[in-house]
Automatic annotation (TrEMBL):
<feature type="transmembrane region" description="Helical">
    <location>
        <begin position="72"/>
        <end position="98"/>
    </location>
</feature>
<dbReference type="GO" id="GO:0046513">
    <property type="term" value="P:ceramide biosynthetic process"/>
</dbReference>
<dbReference type="GO" id="GO:0046512">
    <property type="term" value="P:sphingosine biosynthetic process"/>
</dbReference>
<protein>
    <recommendedName>
        <fullName>serine C-palmitoyltransferase</fullName>
        <ecNumber>2.3.1.50</ecNumber>
    </recommendedName>
</protein>
<dbReference type="InterPro" id="IPR004839">
    <property type="entry name" value="Aminotransferase_I/II_large"/>
</dbReference>
<comment type="pathway">
    <text>Sphingolipid metabolism.</text>
</comment>
<dbReference type="InterPro" id="IPR050087">
    <property type="entry name" value="AON_synthase_class-II"/>
</dbReference>
<keyword id="KW-0746">Sphingolipid metabolism</keyword>
<keyword id="KW-0443">Lipid metabolism</keyword>
<feature type="domain" description="Aminotransferase class I/classII large">
    <location>
        <begin position="155"/>
        <end position="500"/>
    </location>
</feature>
<dbReference type="GO" id="GO:0030170">
    <property type="term" value="F:pyridoxal phosphate binding"/>
</dbReference>
<dbReference type="Pfam" id="PF00155">
    <property type="entry name" value="Aminotran_1_2"/>
</dbReference>
<dbReference type="InterPro" id="IPR015422">
    <property type="entry name" value="PyrdxlP-dep_Trfase_small"/>
</dbReference>
<keyword id="KW-0663">Pyridoxal phosphate</keyword>
<dbReference type="InterPro" id="IPR015421">
    <property type="entry name" value="PyrdxlP-dep_Trfase_major"/>
</dbReference>
<keyword id="KW-0472">Membrane</keyword>
<comment type="similarity">
    <text>Belongs to the class-II pyridoxal-phosphate-dependent aminotransferase family.</text>
</comment>
């Protein structure tokens, strides 16, 4: 096939295919004459149709959008048809943007529509779905939680209550409570700042400060509220708190409510604490301008370990942090006279900035206290929610706390008996198959954990609960697994918690 012109891709306008000829014939004429093979004929016909459409569109665009006005020159710039189109598009966009958004007309719903919406509405549950774990019911005591108690009509040995000194059932406590009820009644019916302060409250605060050797103290009406009221009162947004990852839930809640910057270190690991303090001091440029705290427990409720207060005080002084120490499980237990962790390590109590404790353990009463400097205490009287807004501690419980401190101070041999029983029990548990002792040898809160984990937190807990239930049914020994709330973020291994008291008969 010989064309009159050669077709060069770079020289020929692809939209004007009629310029290709053979002896004066156009491509369309060649195709209609049937001089091209069938496959080539099909391809050329399709290509030619597309190019014809594009060519016709371009010609129409030139006719419509290249009027004399479009070829005008404005400020030395020639205006082509495409500029006119772009200007029209910009105007259309601005017009649409400036239009008010469409709002459907407002009209009240009909009764039928209201009924339909009510039928479709499903209220969200106020509580999470109940699991089998949540349905677990702990044994109910039919008597006082002394060294021996009654469960389901059967007397058992009680290793579940934190009655470390055996003061539950003490005659002096009973007499003190009876006299207080006869004098003051049962409750105070008002917060401390609103006619709820009774003279026995002031006497109890003075007695606590005198026993621990601190300038002042403050009473709280509920033990667990002491920690999550005192911490937010002293720590605010922007402050830095370095806390042990094993602290119990009340402290966790206080840390959350404080809105401070919380940094956790490995459980009872002083190397981890030192590295954390070093990193915060080095990397935070504002560290010297904000309040900084180290929060630990004297005896950890979730492990039975003792905090090494001597090392903590050295780190505190080196990096200039304050220490907040929870002594819930150590007051009446540690030290020669039961004054807690500071006495145990022979460290002056002035080196500890804030001390908190619940009085429901060794003191066999209720409520809690915070002790420290006068400024620390006075600040809480104005800014602690648990103190300002809660009804004050019932007077008979404050009176019982005073009597408990008196008994403890007059009878230091109670602590000696307790320590002897701790040693005796640990010897008996040293070769227990399948379980190992994870707590400190001086802790009255003995913590047994599995030597070999099942690989699952829930399975470990279920196994430990089965062991505790078996001990209660077959041996009449009441112990509990370290069951935690769904809100508790502590990730330490679970175990069986055994609390020791001074009663020698229970140990035997």
């Amino acid at each position: 096939m010989d064309f009159g012109h050669t077709c060069n891709r770079d020289d020929v306008n692809p939209l004007n295919c009629n310029q290709l000829t053979r002896d004066g014939e156009s491509i369309s004429e060649i195709i209609s004459a049937g001089s091209v093979p069938r496959k080539a004929n099909s391809w050329i016909t399709m290509d030619f149709s597309v190019m014809s459409i594009l060519s016709n569109g371009l010609d129409w665009f030139k006719v419509e959008y290249d009027p004399p006005l479009a070829r005008a020159v404005v400020f030395g710039v020639p205006i082509g048809g495409h500029l006119v189109v772009e200007a029209l598009l910009v105007i259309a966009i601005l017009f649409l943007l400036l239009q008010k958004s469409y709002k459907p007309p407002k009209r009240p719903l009909t009764e039928k529509e209201i009924d339909m919406l009510c039928e479709e509405w499903v209220p969200e549950s106020l509580i999470p779905p109940l699991t089998e774990e949540m349905k677990y019911e702990s044994p109910v005591l039919d008597s006082a939680a002394g060294p021996h108690t009654v469960i389901d009509g059967r007397e058992v040995v009680n290793f579940a209550s934190t009655n470390y000194l055996g003061l539950i059932g003490n005659e002096k406590l009973h007499e003190s409570c009876t006299a207080a009820v006869e004098k003051y009644g049962v409750g105070s019916c008002g917060p401390r700042g609103f006619y709820g302060t009774i003279d026995v409250h002031l006497d109890c605060e003075e007695r606590i400060a005198k026993f621990l050797g601190t300038p002042d103290s403050i009473l709280y009406s509920f033990g667990i509220s002491t920690m999550f009221s005192a911490i937010p009162a002293l720590c605010k947004k922007g402050d830095i708190i370095v806390a042990d990852e094993g602290v119990h839930w009340a402290i966790q809640n206080g840390l959350h409510l404080s809105r401070s910057t919380i940094v956790y270190f490995k459980h009872n690991d002083m190397e981890s604490l030192g590295n954390t303090l070093e990193k915060i001091t080095r990397e935070n440029k504002r560290v010297t301008k904000v309040r900084r705290y180290i929060v630990v427990e004297a005896i950890y409720q979730n492990s039975g370990q003792l905090a090494p207060l001597d090392v903590i005080v050295k780190l505190k002084e080196k990096y200039r942090f304050r220490v907040l120490l929870d002594e819930t499980n150590s007051i009446g237990v540690l030290g020669d006279c039961g004054r807690g962790l500071s006495e145990h390590y022979r460290i002056p109590v002035e080196k500890i900035d804030v001390i908190t404790a619940a009085m429901g353990s060794a003191l066999a009463t209720d409520g809690g206290f915070c002790t420290g400097s006068v400024k620390v205490v006075d600040h809480q009287r104005l800014g602690s929610s648990g103190y300002v807004f809660s009804a004050s501690l019932p007077p008979y419980l404050a009176s019982a706390a005073i009597t408990a401190f008196d008994i403890l101070e007059e009878n230091p041999h109670l602590i000696t008996k307790l320590k002897r029983n701790i040693t005796l029990l640990l010897e008996g548990l040293s070769d227990l198959p399948g379980l190992s002792i994870a707590s400190n040898p001086q802790s009255p809160l003995v913590f047994l954990k599995l030597k070999r984990t099942t690989g699952s937190f829930q399975n470990d807990l279920q196994l430990l609960e089965d062991i505790a239930d078996l001990m209660l049914k077959e041996d009449s020994v009441f112990v509990v697994a370290s069951k935690r709330s769904t809100l508790d973020k502590c990730r330490l291994p679970v175990g069986i918690r055994i609390t020791i008291n001074r009663c020698r008969k229970s140990m035997s």
